[in-house]
Structures are given as C-alpha cells and as structure tokens.
Protein: UPF0056 membrane protein
Amino acid sequence: MDIAVYLNAMIALFVIIDPIGAALIFHSLVPVDDMRHRVKMAIKAAVISSTLLILFGNFGEPLLHKLGISIDALRISGGILLFYTAFHMITKDTEHTSTTERKDIAVFPMSIPMLAGPGSLTLAILLFSKASDYQGTLSITLAILTISLGTLVMMILSRYVKKIIGRTGDDILRRFLGVVLAALAIQFIHDGIINMAHV
Structure:
C-alpha cells in the first residue's frame, strides 16, 4: 500500500463527504429512539455509497472514453462541480430538524446524493485515474472503505455527535471544509487545463 496516496485520497474524500455533517443530517432523518432502524439505515447507506464510489471510480474512466470524453475534460468539469459544492458549503445555511417517521433513507438522500453524490463520484474517478499501479488502486480503495467506515460509525453515534459538536461547531467545520474543497477544485481545474494545453 502507498501511504502517501492513501492519505491524499482519504483527506480529499473526508472533505467532500464530510462524515460529521452527514451524521448530523442522518440524525435528523431517522427516529432517535429506534436504534435498530438507525443501525440498519447507517450500514445500508455506507455499503451502497462505498460500492458506488469504488465501481464508478474504477470503471467510470473507460465509460467516459467510450463516450469520447477525456479525463482532463472531466478534471475541469469535476473541478467546477466541486467548486460549486464548496461554494454552497461555505455560503448556504442548513436546517437540521428531527423526525419520528420511520422510513428508508439509505439510498436517498444518504447514499445519493450525500455520500456518493456527483462531487464524490467525480473525485473517485479522478483519484483512480491518477493511480499508476495496483498499489495506488489498493490505497484509494482502502481510503474509500476507511472513510465509509468512519461515516458509518458517525451515523450510528450521531445523537452523541450532535450533542458534542452542536450547530455552531457544524457550521464552522462545514465552512472550513468548504474552503479546503474549493482549493482542491481549483487544483483539478488547473491540472486539466495544463494537461490539455500539452496535448
């Protein structure tokens, strides 16, 4: 395993997925007193999203190639999309209201578009496209599984996360991660433009 690739992928995924923010939203979508339902929804969401990220990350580029889309075009469009996401993370206010309704929220909205949304799926393709060998691919796959596991734990313990971090803490963290994500987005756009200019 390539530790540098693993850490780079994990940081990028942590920023775009935001496990703490996801846990707070998860907490507002499932009944507080139904622990069995909470665990079931958390596991289902984590499994679906990690599977989507790994499959789309590995096979998304060949699919794009079939459609005549280059990875550098994806870097630029993905960077713009990530910047749009980052802009909303910084400027948009989120409302977290609790519910007593017992429903399946694993696929929508938890897996898609929250955990495996357009931003994270694009990021997965870009990360896997940079992997030059089996070690790199394994490192990125492990990073996805690590973040998914961390998000799963956060969702299961979301009632405690909400008590510890509170709304103010969530706002601060979300806006800080938005700034980091914006910088990552600009880097993707820069790399795409430079690579296309050299073709």
Summary: The CA atoms of residues 79 and 186 lie 6 Å apart. The mean pLDDT is 87. Residues 3-197 form one domain.
